[in-house]
Write a structure and sequence with these properties.
With 176 residues, this protein is an all-alpha fold. The chain has 5 helices and no strands.
Length: 176
């Protein structure tokens, strides 16, 4: 009986120890899973951080390029202001303007140059440039009133009463 009691006591202790070991193993597994999760989160955060750093570098490069362009434009404006103050000829192109000349576009083919001096001319000089003169106008008045359209040039001038009679006659012919 002693042996049985010892055996039962040993079995009871083993069950307690096994239960404690199972709890410890389970805890260790949970801790390992937590560590793995934390490592993956760290890796994800590090990857985000590196991508943000790359975007930041790209943005900074773009900002630097834009600042260089702005500085160039400011220099050009200052040069133009200096030319206006000193009275230099604004029509001449300098070296910096030659760099910015672009190839003519298709739209440029449709635009005609405008002569602003024409608006400064008197009516007579403008008319002579365009080939219009008062003599032609006087001759047209002598010939009679001009027609409103080219399609009516071959038709003779008639009075309203004559036209009404012709229409009535045409109408009667259609009914027959």
């Amino acid at each position: 009986m002693n042996i049985q009691k010892e055996y039962l006591a040993e079995v009871g202790l083993r069950k307690k120890v096994e239960a404690d070991l199972d709890r410890l193993i389970h805890r260790i597994q949970e801790m390992e899973e937590d560590n793995n999760k934390q490592e993956t989160w760290r890796a994800v955060e590090e990857k985000k951080y590196t991508s943000w750093e790359e975007e930041k570098r790209a943005m900074m490069d773009m900002i630097k390029k834009q600042q260089v362009m702005i500085d160039k434009f400011i220099e050009k404006v200052d040069q133009w202001d200096e030319k206006e103050i000193s009275g230099d000829d604004m029509g001449e192109k300098n070296d910096s303007d030659k760099d910015n000349i672009q190839d003519p576009l298709i739209e440029d083919n449709y635009t005609e140059p405008v002569d602003y001096n024409a608006s400064q001319d008197s009516v007579e000089s403008l008319g002579s440039k365009l080939g219009i003169s008062d003599k032609e106008k006087k001759e047209k008045d002598k010939e009679g009133p001009t027609r409103r359209s080219d399609r009516n040039l071959d038709k003779k001038d008639s009075k309203i009463e004559d036209l009404a009679k012709e229409r009535a006659a045409d109408k009667d012919n259609y009914e027959k």
